[in-house]
Amino acid sequence: MAQVTFIAFDGSEMQIDATGGISLMENAVANGVDGIEAQCGGNAYCGTCRVIPQGAWGDRLGPRGDVEEGLLSSLDEDNPGVRLSCQITVSEALDGLVVRLPESQS
Ligand code: FES
């Protein structure tokens, strides 16, 4: 279990208790987080699950994977900090994670 805070583009916050072993996207959808549409169901194809880790979390999550990098490049994502939440697996190490949602998902 990890406590994760999602900050919408308008600044409103939602905190969830995320379950380990599944993706951050799946946790967001299960908890009704607005702005995480996840149209492709987590197949790194749609780009509607983007999040921007805040503060030191960008480094702590490590670099984008190849599939993640490929999709974000093809979508001309220009923020290097953006991640696909469907490609982030939740663990206790992510307790306290704070992510912001991009304007495109507002
Ligand atoms: Fe489609 Fe993440 S859910 S790219």
From TrEMBL:
SUPFAM superfamilies: 2Fe-2S ferredoxin-like (SSF54292). InterPro entries: 2Fe-2S_ferredoxin-like_sf, 2Fe-2S_ferredoxin-type, Adrenodoxin-like, Beta-grasp_dom_sf. Residues 2-105 form the 2Fe-2S ferredoxin-type domain. Its cofactor is [2Fe-2S] cluster. Keywords: 2Fe-2S, Iron, Iron-sulfur, Metal-binding. Belongs to the adrenodoxin/putidaredoxin family. This is 2Fe-2S iron-sulfur cluster-binding protein.
